[in-house]
Amino acid sequence: MALVVQKYGGSSVADAACIKRVAQRIVATKKAGNDVVVAVSAMGDTTDELLDLAQQVSPMPPGRELDMLLTAGERISMALLAMAIGNLGVEARSFTGSQAGVITDSTHGKARIIDVTPGRIREAIDKGQIAIVAGFQGVSRDTKDITTLGRGGSDTTAVALAAALNADVCEIYTDVDGVFTADPRIVPTARRIPRISYEEMLEMAACGAKILHLRCVEYARRFNLPIHVRSSFSNKEGTWVVADPVSEEGQMEQPIISGVAHDRSEAKITVVGVPDKVGEAASIFKALADAEINIDMIVQNVSAAATGRTDISFTLPATDGPTAINALKKIQDDVGFESLLYDDRIGKVSLIGAGMRSHPGVTAKFFGALADAGVNIEMISTSEIRISVIVSQDDVDAAVTAAHSAFNLDADQVEAVVYGGTGR
Amino acid sequence: MALVVQKYGGSSVADAACIKRVAQRIVATKKAGNDVVVAVSAMGDTTDELLDLAQQVSPMPPGRELDMLLTAGERISMALLAMAIGNLGVEARSFTGSQAGVITDSTHGKARIIDVTPGRIREAIDKGQIAIVAGFQGVSRDTKDITTLGRGGSDTTAVALAAALNADVCEIYTDVDGVFTADPRIVPTARRIPRISYEEMLEMAACGAKILHLRCVEYARRFNLPIHVRSSFSNKEGTWVVADPVSEEGQMEQPIISGVAHDRSEAKITVVGVPDKVGEAASIFKALADAEINIDMIVQNVSAAATGRTDISFTLPATDGPTAINALKKIQDDVGFESLLYDDRIGKVSLIGAGMRSHPGVTAKFFGALADAGVNIEMISTSEIRISVIVSQDDVDAAVTAAHSAFNLDADQVEAVVYGGTGR
After folding, report:
1. Which domains are assigned to chain A?
2. Which keywords does this Swiss-Prot/TrEMBL entry list (chains A, B) (predicted)?
3. pTM (2 d.p.)
4. A210 annotated ligand binder
5. Which chain B residues contact residue A62 at CB under 8 A?
């Protein structure tokens, strides 16, 4: 008998009909002989509706109260899901994050899980019950206040519970059949990836593949917990995220490239004419860090000898653009740079594959494919298992298609089916 | 400095605008130099909407899950109210029933409070914060599950908190200016009752005055806690419910009658031709008790010597009518009664007043007034401070008006203003 933790997002429980369908799937998993624990998000647009109400009463609601408000969403969906399962003749119990023992720090709105003490969940399992746990929420160890985990929170809840319960697998249900070699909306012949390593999945997530959140993959890697990403609309096998996909599969050789990811949500800022002195770059990035802005790629031009000045470009989430520009303007006189350029018409295209460690020709082939497709590269960044380039936003589709094809990732026929909307 | 506990019902926090208005009232109470604790119900129709969702996924939702679901309603209203207060520059913290220490038994849907341990509320008060507590909910001592208190639950939460915190007063906000000598919709010249005893208020509540729930008055009496019933739409003094209204007011004499209450929600069942033997009545009322039906008034006719049979009539909530009829039909053969009569076109009119203890003529005057108004009395029941009669539902208005006038309760001018809808 296996212990399976399942996670259903907001689009999977958007209304009563959806909830009843999910209940049937959960009951089927139970009847197949498994113990089942479920993490569930708030129904469809509930979170947005609650945020809207909050805005109506306060332009800057305190984090503690906002968390109290938003956690009502999962309370509703989990109770309804437990009722729907009960109606199918199987006993189910819903638990808040606090009841499930999801202990966090006190950072409201993006709390980090510091411990999971799932005594009541274990008790429910031992009684043969299905435990339904509110995703996205926990309780602060220090203040005993209710907290939320921020983006990707429900996935993280599921993985953290699975790790604490020593589950056999954490199934993340979504509206596609798994992780694909590229976004099927851009490359219709993209292939489902049957198995992928944590490291590659982390790079995919960091490079714009929205199917799993970075935090949940990190958590799974730390506890060596297998994740099965699959569709809540079909019974097909999805994508397994595991430590060592090659040896587990018994394959002879690893594919060089696992997939091509892209991201249109970044912007590029260029600080023009920075005096080429020790500490100038440090001042710039300290100002950005103080404004809590996450920088992605950084390029510093070789200093022009004639002027003694250089340009520094970096990318960041476009939503942080205005904040970053403000922070930099405040230090313009101190640092003495000349001007700021802002460009949010960029895109990032990334090639990810553990196999590229042992294949030195990958970069050349990637850049060659982009050149053949007429795509100009603006910035480059690499890791051991990833190459990312910044291109014009208009060139993203062409770049993804060219790279996908150059590394022979195309399937013979269309494999991907996108079933519903996008979950959270 | 006084400690004031305030309770706002669903109609007082129906939308963002209402919540902001209530926030201003709370802040004004705080700025007047008081410590303030607030118990709040779910917004307007939230509870009904959640019940409707539950019905969609399960025809018979388990009580535990239904309570988990419904308590999301207060979570939303209390977080929004705390935000709205914060936006006025005063710090507020919201607390669930569990966080506020409202400990109950495990009877889901109508749990009873068995202890209140308001450590976190006291802490918030000591920090100068306003504590907002979810009404209607608690946590089971034995199972640690979330419970709801059932009808009148938010009033009970407020009074229980006020008692545990040794508050100076519990203010129950509603949509009328207090308790009136009769329903102003029937008697436009009804007078606001400035002060009333717990005993009289209990009789009023039991006899159909919907302004305060029986349980909350009982709780306040046990702890000798003053309740101030007032309107959330005005700043007028309302009605004080206290132990000894006369001596506290310094009056010379108590009014004979405090008010006239009425109730159209009951039905009458007559069990016809019951054999006049020992134990027959007991069998009938045991069957009703087993079906969990609350009986109000009972009348047994004098047995007719010729037949050796008698009729037993009783009243009960009309909503329990079908259940009661079924329960009685099952024992018809065993008991050997002849038939059942059912009448839900009845009304109960009650005269309440502590002063009637020392005024023996009250009954005669009451019945005389009804006779003059052409109202036929079907059943009679009395307590030390109350006389109730069952009349035809069509005669209720005439009976209330006649009694109100006979005891000189009419004001010189219209005092009552009904501001909004009805709260819960």
Report:
1. 3-250 (3.40.1160.10)
2. Amino-acid biosynthesis, ATP-binding, Diaminopimelate biosynthesis, Kinase, Lysine biosynthesis, Nucleotide-binding, Transferase
3. 0.86
4. no
5. 82-83, 86
